[in-house]
Design brief:
The chain is α+β, with helices and mostly antiparallel strands. The chain is about 35% helix and about 25% strand. It has helices at about 10-15, 25-35, 50-60, 120-130, 140-155, 165-170, 190, 195-205; strands at about 75, 85-95, 105-115, 120, 135, 155-165, 180-190. The longest helix has 16 residues, at about 140-155.
């Protein structure tokens, strides 16, 4: 991505966040940020902060170590002919916006209309977290979750609705706490058939 730019070779030498080691370049960068904001990174309360921040960011962004589609690999075909909507509602998640690296805190509703098989219900949440624990925009997060389920589970329909608050809007900039953003992606039967769409929206408690 940036390998041709001078001074950016750091991206090639920094060990993967998957390893336990936290490179000095990372903690140095955080110390620089603290200093730049006006505080003293050597004072007692801040001395271990760079390491803690680095570990926190490794956790916030562990989706980069994840392959969300892999969670959909194991399916169950013995469902007694069940062919109605499967919905996982109000899944809490957190992500970070790619423009400010500020928290996005929200809830997702994920539904699909099975064809022949289902997945373990926790897997839908795992797919969400796999994409959420990266630097994101809510629109893309919504699309990635829906597309992943559509492509790998091959159901008759997928519906993903996400409500989230963005700290880059609530805590800075226009500073409007309480505002939530809603995004949705409807695929297959939920897009083409109005009755199916209405049914899933009702189950999600949105109409
Ligand atoms: Zn932002």
């Amino acid at each position: 991505m940036s390998e041709s730019l001078p001074g950016t070779s750091v991206t090639e030498t920094v060990p993967s966040p998957a390893s336990d080691e936290i490179p000095d370049e990372v903690t140095d960068a955080i110390r620089t940020l603290i200093r730049w904001t006006g505080d003293d990174p050597t004072r007692e309360g801040l001395v271990d902060t760079p390491r803690r921040v680095a570990k926190a960011w490794r956790e916030y962004c562990q989706g980069y170590q994840d392959e969300p589609a892999a969670h959909l690999a194991r399916v169950f075909e013995e469902v007694g002919g069940y062919d109605e909507i499967v919905l996982l509602k109000d899944i809490p998640f957190q992500s970070h916006c790619e423009h400010h690296m500020a928290p996005i805190i929200g809830r997702a509703h994920i539904a699909y209309l099975p064809k022949d098989h289902v997945v373990g219900i926790s897997k839908l949440a795992r797919v969400l977290h796999g994409f959420a624990r990266r630097l994101q925009v809510q629109e893309r997060l919504t699309a990635e979750v829906a597309d992943c389920i559509w492509k790998h589970l091959k159901p008759q329909g997928v519906a993903v609705v996400i409500d989230a608050t963005h700290a880059c809007m609530t805590a800075r900039g226009v500073c409007t706490p309480g505002v939530t953003m809603r995004t949705s992606r409807m695929m297959g039967a939920f897009r083409d058939d109005e009755r199916s769409r209405l049914e899933v929206m009702k189950l999600m408690g949105l109409v």
